[in-house]
Amino acid sequence: MPDKSNFTPDEWKLLLESVMVAGIAVSAAEPSGLWGLLKESFAEGSALMTAKLDPGADALIKAVVADFETAEGRSTARDGLKEKLTGSKPGEVKAKCIETLRQAGAVVDAKAPSDAAAFKGWLRQISQHVAEASKEGGFLGIGGVRVSEAEKATLNEISSALKLAA
């Protein structure tokens, strides 16, 4: 049963960051304005809560969620993201997020192969929830689409980075 002790501190930081960048990549692909961003952020947070409450959730997912419940875990993820994304131009944020997901997928494939499919699928699911959280286009929520073409393309990039079927 893999947990934090199976990974180096840098690898664990990467796994924590991957949870956050799974949503950030989608948000960066199609910025939704203030309300959209709030809805997308809430969708990412609710994915953590859902995993915490799911008795059948994978052990590695549970370990990552448990670390997010600590000040140290949240600080590690936040500081890592600051380091990665500070100074990035808007167009670079998505690419850096996708690369982080690619690296995290490789780490879990190597260090926790029995949990890799579940963990990577969970990251993809977080991205999907964020994409569906707010309508894109339209005016004041009227019209628009649930998932924009840019978000669909980003979801495909995420699946590819994680080596999952789109």
Can you characterise this structure?
With 166 residues, this protein is mostly helical. It is 73% helix and 0% strand. It is built from 7 helices and no strands. It has helices at 9-29, 33-53, 59-68, 71-85, 90-111, 113-132, 149-161. Helix 1 crosses helix 5 (90-111), helix 2 packs across helix 3 and helix 6 runs antiparallel to helix 7 (149-161). The protein is globular and about 45 Å long.
List the SSEs and their pairings.
Layout: H1 9-29, H2 33-53, H3 59-68, H4 71-85, H5 90-111, H6 113-132, H7 149-161
Helix pairs in contact: 1-2, 1-4, 1-5, 1-6, 1-7, 2-3, 2-6, 5-6, 5-7, 6-7
List descriptors:
166 residues, mainly alpha, globular
